Amino acid sequence: MASTAEAAEAAVLSGIDPDPDASSGRRKGRTGYLLLLPAAIWLGLFFVVPFYSLVATSLFDPSGSDSKGYEMTYHVANYWTALQDYWQPLLRSLLYAGIATLICLVFGYVLAYAIAFKAGRWKNLMLVLVIAPFFTSFLVRTLSWKLILADDGYVVDLLQTLHLLAEDGRLLATPVAVVAGLSYNFLPFMVLPLFASLDKIDHRLIEASSDLYGKPIVGFFKVTWPLSLPGVVSGTLLTFIPAAGDYINAQLLGSPNQRMVGSVIQSLFTDANNYPIAGALSMILMCLILVMVLFYVRRAGTDDLL
Amino acid sequence: MTWIRRNLVLILGLLVLFYTFIPIFVVVLMSFNDPTSRLIYQFDGFTLHNWQNPCEDPSMCEALSRSIQIGLLSTIVATIIGTLAAFALVRHSFRGRTVSNLVIFLPMAAPEIVLGSSLLALFVGAGLAGQLGFWTILIAHIMFCLSFVIVTVRSRLAGMGDTLEQASADLYATPRQTFWRVTFPLVFPGILGAALLAFSLSFDDFIVTNLNAGNTTTFPMYVWGVAQRGVPMQVNVVGTLMFLIAVVIVVSGELNSRRRARALV
Prior knowledge:
heterodimer; A: 306 residues; 0% strand; disordered C terminus; B: mainly alpha; MetI-like fold; 78% helix
C-alpha cells in the first residue's frame, strides 16, 4: 500500500512539474508507463490472453476430453456444430434481449425525462432511488419476481379477473416472465445514460421550439429526442449486451423452453465438459453481438444525428 | 385534470420508480416470513425468527463471508491499480493510447458469459482445472472491476481540470503538498465511488464466478443452488440488509457533498 501511494505521489509530482512542451496538459516520460503497468499486466494476462485461449479452445479437436487433453487441429467445423445444435437458444437470447431493451427504453426514457426536466430539487434524490433497488443481490431480486409472478399471486389473479389471461394461464415459465425479469434487472443501465444526455440539453432550445409555435410533441421529436440520441445509443447497448448473455432470469423465471444461450455455454463447460463447442458458441455470441452493435451504432450515428 | 396533464410525465416517472421498488418490498416482507414449507415460496405469517437466526443454515453465512472477503480484496486491488492507470491516462502521454482505451473498454462491453468462459479456457489450458476456487474467482473479479474503476476515476480526473493545481503551484506549494492537499482530496470522491462500484460488482457477480469457482461457493452461487430446492428466508434478510447499507452509504455521500457545496457558497 505504502509503495503504491508513493508511486502515485511520484507520478503526480512529475505531472504537476511545470513542463513547457506539454501544451496538451499531458506529461511525457516514463512515469505514465509505470502507472499504467499494473493494470496493463492484469488486463493483458486475464483479459487479452484468455480471449486468445477461448479462440484456441474453439478450434480444438472435439474428440478430445478434459482428462485426455485436447488436440489443436484448427477444427473450424466446431462453429458449424455449435450453430446447428444451438441456433434456437442463440436466436432466443437475441430476441428476448431485444424486446427487453425496447421495454427498458420506454420505461427508462419516461423515468429519465421526469428526473431531468420535472424533478427540480428532488433530482439527486430520485437518481439515488433509481439505483437503490439494484443494490440487493441480483439473484434475490429475481427470486422475488418469481414470487410476484407466481401462479396464485396477485398479478396472475388480477390478469385472470380482467380476462387478459386464461383461467389456467400462468406467467411463470413463459417468455413473458423471462422478458419481464430481464427488463427489470437491466433498467438502471438504461436510465443512467439517458439521464446523462437529457440533463445536458439546453432548455432554451426547447423553449425556442415552442416560441416558434412548435407543438410540444413536435418539439419533443425535433429537439429533445435527437439531442438525447447519444444516451439512447449507449443505454440500449448497456442493456442489450448483458441481457443477451444473461441466463439467470431464464433459469429462475422460465422453463427449459426459454433456455438462453448463456445457460447452454455454462453447462457445456461445467457439466458436459465439451470445451471446443462451448468455446465456439461463446465466440459466436460475441461476434453476433459485435456485428449488431457496429451496425446499430452506424445507423444511429447517421440517421438523425447529422 | 389540467394538473394531471401538466404533471403527467412526472407521475409516470414516479410510477416507474415505484415499480422498481416492488421486488424490494417483497424481499423485505419475506425476510419476516414464517414459512410452513420450504418448497412453497409464499408469505404465511409474521416472525422475527429469520432476523434473530441469520445463520440457521451455516453454509449460507460461510458463502456470505467468502463473498465479502472476495469483494473487499478485489475492491482494494482494483481500486489501487485502476486509479494509477487513470492518472496515467489523463495526466501522461504515451504511445498506444488507442489500444489501451480499447482494452479497458472491452471487458465492460463483452457479455459476462464470454469473459467467464475465456478465463476458464485459460485456467484449464494452464492445467489449473483442479485449482479453481477462491483465487481464480479473485483474479476474475479484479479483472472486470478494473475497467469500471479506471473509467470512473478517469472521468473525475478529466472533469476537474488542473487550474487548482496550477494555483497551488503558483503559491509555492511543493509538488508533494499540491498532490496531497489539492489533487487527492479532489479526486477522492471519484476513487470512493469507484471502490463502492467495484465492491457491488464483485459481491453480486454470478455468471463469471460460477464458471471459475470450482467447488467454492459465493453468496450468489448459494442463492442459485437453493433456488432449485427451496429458499431459506434468511436469504431475504441478507437482501434487505444489503439494500439498507447501500442506501445509507449513498444518501450520506449525497448529504455530505451537499453540505460541502453549501460551505463553498
